[in-house]
């Protein structure tokens, strides 16, 4: 996999390059290989003198965006299901980055989107996420929240207790957050009179 970030502006010093720039973009649209991830941007906000620096920063952000931005539940990949999401992250881990990129956030987004219309499918994706990321307190916590939303508070408490245990290796803020979720589930259970 290769990445190309191409940018220009419309300053008078850049005008002479715009025709060639547009031709190159057209060539990319018609002839680029499927292994090339490319983006073209027209930056008309910055002066031509700062374009190189701004482009480097924006290019780095674009290159690593799939690490920092989860797939939307309605993305082409997510629409194909959990295994397609897992396969996508395996592909970019191996072919693009050379280190593991987590699919956890994208799987949770997909599971959440399915929870109301297909609760069993949503729960199964949450379960799969906890299997793939057994040390993740947040994978367990998301599963707990899903059970709570479906009215099974006992299961929610069971999984949130595991999340609290896993969070012990995290900074205090995260530990408190997981304990807070557990306390909320216990209040919910008490209010139901169970």
- Radius of gyration, taken over Cα atoms and rounded to an integer in Å: 23 Å
Principal-axes geometry comes out as elongated
The mean pLDDT is 93
Class based on secondary structure composition and strand pairing? mainly alpha
Summed up, the helix count is 9
Helix coverage percent of residues?
Answer: 55-70%
What is the percentage of strand-forming residues? 5-15%
N-to-C order of helices and strands: EHEHHHHHHHH
**Strand runs, count:** 2
Largest sheet, order of strands side by side? 1-2
Q: How many angstroms does the end-to-end distance come to? A: 55 Å
Uncertain segments: none
- How would you sum up the major sheet? 2 strands, parallel
Question: What is the structure about, briefly put?
Answer:
This protein has 194 residues and is mainly alpha-helical. 62% of the residues lie in helices and 7% in strands.
Can you offer a commentary on this structure?
The longest helix has 21 residues, at 172-192. Among the domains are: 1-63, no CATH class; 134-194, no CATH class. 62% of the residues lie in helices and 7% in strands. The protein is elongated, with a radius of gyration of 23 Å. By secondary structure, the protein is mainly α.
């Amino acid at each position: 996999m290769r990445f190309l970030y191409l940018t220009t502006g419309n300053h008078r010093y850049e005008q002479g390059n715009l025709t060639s720039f547009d031709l190159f973009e057209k060539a990319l649209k018609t002839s680029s290989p499927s292994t090339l991830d490319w983006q073209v941007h027209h930056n008309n906000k910055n002066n031509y003198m700062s374009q190189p620096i701004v482009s480097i920063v924006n290019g780095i952000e674009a290159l690593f965006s799939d690490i920092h931005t989860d797939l939307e539940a309605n993305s082409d990949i997510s629409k194909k299901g959990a295994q397609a999401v897992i396969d996508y992250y395996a592909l970019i881990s191996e072919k693009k980055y050379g280190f593991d990129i987590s699919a956890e956030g994208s799987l949770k987004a997909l599971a959440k989107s399915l929870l109301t219309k297909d609760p069993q499918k949503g729960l199964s994706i949450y379960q799969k996420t906890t299997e793939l990321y057994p040390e993740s307190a947040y994978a367990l916590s998301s599963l707990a929240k899903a059970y709570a939303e479906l009215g099974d508070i006992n299961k929610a408490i069971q999984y949130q207790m595991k999340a609290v245990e896993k969070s012990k290796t995290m900074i205090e803020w995260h530990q408190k957050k997981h304990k807070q979720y557990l306390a909320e589930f216990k209040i919910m259970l008490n209010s139901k009179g169970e």
